[in-house]
Amino acid sequence: MAINTLEEKMVHGLGDIYDAEHQFLEMMQEALPQANSDTVKMLLQQHITETEQQISTLEDVFDLLGQKAERVKCQGASGIVSENQKTMKEVSKNPVLVDIAIAGGSSKVEHYEIASYRSLITGAQQMGQNQIAQLLQQNLQQEEQTAQKIEQSTPTLFQKAMSQARSA
Fold this sequence. Notes:
The chain is mostly helical and about 170 residues long. It has one domain: Ferritin, core subunit, four-helix bundle (Ferritin). It is about 85% helix and about 0% strand. The chain contains 5 helices and no strands. The protein is elongated and about 60 Å long. The mean pLDDT is about 95.
């Protein structure tokens, strides 16, 4: 489908992140039973809840634009999900490495989402769509906070893996 106007570009971008959020939600739901660390489990549960809220917020944005919320296949998200699934299979025998893989995959997800939301917010602001920009800003703030939590927990996961390797 050709994109000919700024509004069409905005709707396409919203459909892309809408699809990405759905794909990432499914990825997290699959990862949750595999998580071993209480910290990783808690982060996944929080992010699942936030992602469900973000999907709802995106539906509100579509409504404000007078559009039906529709997923546009997000190849970037598909690649991250596929890479994460492959890594999870490769580390499946070591619980500490599983947690590190979940954290690493989640960090990639967050940074992809952050970049997507920043671009959409800029577009909404430039189009004078301030209410939409504010809604997208809420999602962005959650993504940034989640990225920070993951980044703060990752060194502990690595230390645990290194300690395990030394005692093996």
